[in-house]
Amino acid sequence: MRRLPVRRARRTAIGATLALVGVLSLSGCSQLVDAFNNMQGDTASVPANAGATVRPSATPTETMAFNSQFTYDGSVMMTSEIADDLELRLELWAVDSKRTQEWTPARDKTFGFAVNVYDRRVDDKAVLAEKRRVYISSIQIMSQTAQTSGQVQSPFQFSADPRTLVPTDTLRSERGLLLNTYQGGLLVPEQTIRQLPADTFGMTLEFAMTITVEGTANTDTSFQQQTVYQYVPIAIFQD
């Protein structure tokens, strides 16, 4: 490709620039500055933060005013080690609305929960005599609000003997409702949290479960009672 003489090249560049100025002068100074910046776009530049570590975008739980895995997923499972290789499981899930970002102070908020037990020493299909039995005799749920005013209230409360919440043919004794059976432990399909203070942005449910645990499988003299606590934070959004 034939190169233009230096003087001619300069005259061509100046003429193009003047023509551009003439056009842009009709549309304002700010566009003129942008045009000159664009003309220099072919020049390589190094970002000011080159070499810095780039953080990933914030997750929904990080940007949430009240951090809640239950709100993020619509459900949560929490476990408690009640003996060596013996695990109590509390599961909680949204029922109405299943879209937890619709959980606001004014509307009803319905959830379901289940309590089960898992003995890791034996196979799931093992007969009951080979498993360490676990009975639940009481379950209580208390609540505590988080409010922009700084006030704390307990608008939701629940207390029951689990034996009254399931069909009468479910295995039970004076120790309570038997959890580790094929019938599925304790299932409470619906509980409703009703109106909350208008400035509520979160609440925490505290579960207190009184259980009796068998120390050695098929040994009636080895039972001991304990109370297990679990806490479930729930975000509340404004209407």
TrEMBL record:
<keyword id="KW-0732">Signal</keyword>
<protein>
    <submittedName>
        <fullName>Fructose 1,6-bisphosphatase</fullName>
    </submittedName>
</protein>
<feature type="signal peptide">
    <location>
        <begin position="1"/>
        <end position="35"/>
    </location>
</feature>
